[in-house]
Design goal:
two-stranded antiparallel sheet
C-alpha cells in the first residue's frame, strides 16, 4: 500500500502543507530572534499604555499558531480526509 499512487499522493499533500506551515512559522520565529538579538530597541518601543512591540509580536505569534492550526484542520478535512477514506475503502474492500 505504501508504494501505491494514492498513498504517495496523500503523503505528498500532507508533507507539502507541513513544509509550508513550518517555513512560515519558523520564518516568523527567526525574525523575532534576529530582532531581539540585533535590534533589541525595536521590541522596547511603546505602542500605548503598558504594551510594546515585543508584546505585540508575542500576541501575533499566538495568532499565527492559531491561524496555521485552523488552516491545517480545514485542509485536512477537505483534501486529506477524502483521500484517506478512499485508501481505507480500497484496503478494507467495502467493509465500512
Amino acid at each position: 500500500m505504501y508504494d501505491s499512487a494514492q498513498f504517495q499522493d496523500l503523503q505528498r499533500r500532507s508533507n507539502g502543507f507541513i513544509i509550508w506551515a513550518s517555513v512560515v512559522f519558523y520564518g516568523w520565529w527567526f525574525t523575532g530572534v534576529a530582532l531581539a538579538a540585533f535590534a533589541p530597541g525595536v521590541f522596547r518601543q511603546g505602542i500605548g499604555g503598558p504594551f510594546n512591540v515585543g508584546m505585540l509580536f508575542l500576541f501575533l505569534s499566538f495568532a499565527l499558531v492559531a491561524a496555521i492550526s485552523g488552516l491545517y484542520m480545514r485542509y485536512a478535512r477537505t483534501r486529506l480526509d477524502p483521500a484517506s477514506e478512499r485508501i481505507r475503502a480500497d484496503l478494507e474492500g467495502g467493509l465500512r
